[in-house]
Amino acid sequence: MRQPPQPSPIEDIAVLLIPCPYCGPRAEIEFRYGGEAHLERPKPDCDEQSWGAYLHSRHNVRGRHAERWRHTHGCGQFFNAIRDTLTDHIEATYEAGEASPLQGSTS
Amino acid sequence: MSQPFRTATHGRIDRSREIRFTFDRQTFVGHPGDTIASALLANGVHLMGRSFKYHRPRGVLGFGSEEPNALVGVDRGNGRFEPNQRATMVRLTEGLVVESQNRSPSLRRDVGAINDLLSKFIPAHATPSDAQAGAGKAFVDFQNDVTAKDIRLAVREGFQSVEHIKRYTTNGMATDQGRTSNINALAIAAQTLGKTIPEAGLTTFRAPFSPTTFGTMAGFTRGALFDPVRTPPLHDRLIGEGAVFEHAGQWKRPRYYAQPGETMDEAVLRECATVRRAAGMFDASTLGKIEVVGPDAASFLDFIYAGKPSSLGEGRSRYALMLREDGFILDDGIITRLEADRFHVTTTSAGAAAVLATMEDFRQTELPEMRVWLTSTTEQWAVIAVNGPKARDVLMAVTDDVSLTNEDFPHMSMRTGTVAAVPARIFRASFTGELGYEINVPARSATIVWDGLRRAGKQFGLGVYGLEASQVLRAEKGYIIVGRETDGTTTPDDVGLGGMVAKSKPDFVGKRSLMRDAATDPMRKQLVALLPCDGQPIEEGSQLIDPADPGHSLGHVSSAYRSAELGGPFALAMVQAGRSRIGTRLAIATANSPRPVELRDPVLVDPTGARLHG
After folding, report:
1. Strands B19-23, B97-99: parallel, antiparallel or unpaired by DSSP?
2. CB contacts, 8 Å: A42 with chain B
3. Do A51 and B512 touch (CB under 8 A)?
4. Exposed, middle or buried by CB within 10 Å (0-12, 13-18, 19+), for B281?
5. In the prediction, which pLDDT does B79 show?
6. What ipTM does the predicted assembly reach?
7. Which of B533, B529, B498 is nearest to B601 (CA)?
8. What is the mean pLDDT of chain B?
9. A32 Cβ neighbours under 8 A, 6+ residues apart
10. Which residues contact A56 (CB under 8 A, 6 or more apart)?
11. At what angle do helices B182-193 and B162-169 cross, to 10 degrees?
12. Is the pLDDT of residue B435 over 80?
């Protein structure tokens, strides 16, 4: 996993910050949520069930959730985050395409 | 006006203007910038109320939000009476009605003051060091009439915590939240408890100690700043043309251009006739524009769009549909290949941001290996559409370096040149069905080109047309508007654009969904035109029924207008198996008897495209 850049002084301020893997910690308002991460897009010759699942089925995780975010009002990059859906704590962010740190766990 | 207690200068008070207000029904004069307190003091009024328990006379003690004493009732009419307002906090306004509190029948002759007279009267503000403090009534909290004795009583009753003492005595619980009284009260409590003040601790102030307006929290996000207004570079010119604007997302766009004495309907019919018979100018600058550049630009667009932009030659354009993964139409536009590795892609005005975001999503996450870059150029290019049989003549008058003949510059192609001496990308494209050019020029030069076309167009009868006329003209031609004919459950085939889908491509966004049985069900709603048999206007949103079997809806009217060209009302509708019903009749359900309508091919004007290619 890519190490986030040097912490910036704004980390000390009590607002919700999201550590962009490219820009470092930035205020949540700069980001847009992008839904569940690590969905595999099936090829067009797949069966109806797997295509339907790709379109519609999402995990509704209670706890640590791998999800997509975009730094819309910043670098514009999509990246992934592990966020606890109970506490809103973001424990890690990483570049799109990297393996999920949750791999092997239940979620 | 002379007010003996008013200073001649200082403060944020406008002494040049007067405000009248009443205090206990007596009229006084103040100035803008006064509070009730400052205005009353200037008028020599010091007695402003009585305390609520002992009815002791009260005047101003502090200032601003810390004032514990001068509490008044403020009546703004219509039941908007607010008691317990600090006179030092209420801004004076014209006609303000102020009343003193805790007195009856009047502030000066108050029978309740007997409460005070019956007790031993010591007008002392008790402090912990007062030698006499224990001797009588020494007030600590002026607002709640809490005395030093009350605090000692609380301790005797067994309350140890300052929070409990506060609640038992109500000390510091009034609107000033103990700004005057708390420290003294806590010191007395600490002394009685035999503790130091830091050991006794402090109580908590409650919000809002001073009320905050919603406006303060909303900050600048109010009124005109609630949502940003976007105006195209030609905005001032459009105002000059008499534009009546409508909101299109954040954009302000001309709905029609009013001439004196005209209704909107009359203006729209006139504008439509101008375009069909001569030529009209339309500000299309709000169209979303994205430049797609890179060695993989063509294959990237092949994946994103339903068609096959990679088969475009340089300088050629093609209408394109963008689907969602569920196979339904997300947006439409025109893709032009500027060079082998450079495309100019237009989007709907409203969809520009969503289209770019969707493209970026696929570029970054699904197709990261592709070498392609996306840049929004919506605001860099101003777009003036010139449409109508005289469009070529108008353009020829301001262009000398581009051959405009059909052979050199056919429909759906692009040439670079100068228009009114401004470098331009000229796209031959049309949203009206007439011969049309969409002239793209740098935004800063837009007015030069607009003025040049306007001057040159005079001899050809060139007019201007707005969004409403544009919608009529495109509907006459059966061109869809995404979000009108489509509703998020509409496939390309539903709106007669199945031919725009390059099914042979191995993969593209939405391909798999279009292969589902439901996507090819012949009973899906399909685009048709409607002509009312009674010649009366049709209402958008009307439901279509079979008069022989009126129990259920067969479809709905998506667009309905009056047409100058057709000489009457017409509509576009989405109807179950609509294409197979062309030539037959259905009916529009109304509250009374159903109105018969004839189903027609959606292209009502110039079905052969002779005008478009003229």
Report:
1. parallel
2. 512
3. yes
4. buried
5. 85
6. 0.87
7. B529
8. 92
9. A69, A70, A72
10. none
11. 120
12. yes
Instruction: List pLDDT tens digits, range B21-73.
Output: 999 999 999 999 999 999 999 999 999 988 878 888 889 988 888 888 888 99
Q: List the single residue in A42, A46, A78 with the smallest CB-CB distance to B364.
A: A78
Confidence bin at A107 (pLDDT 50/70/90): very low
Q: How does residue B131 score in pLDDT terms, banded at 50, 70 and 90?
A: very low
B436: amino acid identity, one letter: G
- Chain B residues lying within 8 Å of A97, measured CB to CB: 365, 368
Residues 6+ apart with CB under 8 A from B188: B126, B128, B133, B140, B148, B151, B152
Task: Give the model confidence (pLDDT) of B603-613 as tens digits.
Answer: 999 999 999 99
CA distance A33 to A71: 9
Partnered with residue B437 across adjacent β-strands are B386, B428
Number of C-beta neighbours around residue B207 at 10 A: 9
Name the residue among B520, B518, B526 with its Cα closest to residue B578. B526
Taking the C-alpha atoms of residue B189 and residue B201, their distance in angstroms, rounded to an integer, is 10
Query: pLDDT tens digit string along A7-54?
Result: 555 544 445 899 999 999 999 999 999 999 999 999 999 999 999 999
For chain B, the residues whose C-beta falls within 8 A of a C-beta of chain A are 325-326, 357, 360-361, 364-366, 368, 506-507, 511-513, 515-516
Q: Looking at the complex, report in whole angstroms how far the Cα of residue B358 sits from the nearest Cα belonging to chain A.
A: 11
B357·A72 Cβ contact <8 A: yes
How many Cβ atoms sit within 10 Å of the Cβ of residue B576? 19
As a whole number of angstroms, the distance between CA B188 and CA B318 comes to 86
* Confidence tier at B215 by pLDDT (50, 70, 90): confident
Q: How far does Cα B463 stand from its chain's mean position?
A: 31
B513 and A55 in contact by Cβ < 8 A? yes
- Strand, coil or helix: what is B123? coil
Shortest Cα distance, chain B CAs vs residue A90, angstroms: 21
> What is the least distance, in Å, from the CA of B215 to any CA of chain A?
21
User: What percent of chain B clears pLDDT 90, i.e. is strictly above it?
Assistant: 76
A96: nearest CB among B365, B507, B513: B365
C-alpha span between B83 and B75 (Å, rounded): 8
Distance CA(B64)–CA(B209), nearest Å, equals 11
Structure tokens at B324: 């969602």
pLDDT digits (tens, 9 = 90+) for B382-424: 999 999 999 999 999 999 999 999 999 999 999 999 999 999 9
Q: Nearest-CA distance from A48 to chain B in Å?
A: 8
Phi first, then psi, for residue B278 (nearest 5°) are -125, -95
Q: pTM for the complete prediction?
A: 0.73
Q: Which residues contact A75 (CB under 8 A, 6 or more apart)?
A: A20, A22, A23
Determine the Cα–Cα distance for residues B265 and B53; give it in Å rounded to an integer.
70
Average pLDDT over residues B549-571: 95
Q: How confident is the model at residue B123 (pLDDT cuts 50, 70, 90)?
A: very low
Residue B508 has pLDDT above 80, yes or no: yes
Please give the structure tokens belonging to residue B514. Answer: 């279009």
Q: Which of residues 4-33 of A touch B (CB under 8 A)?
A: none
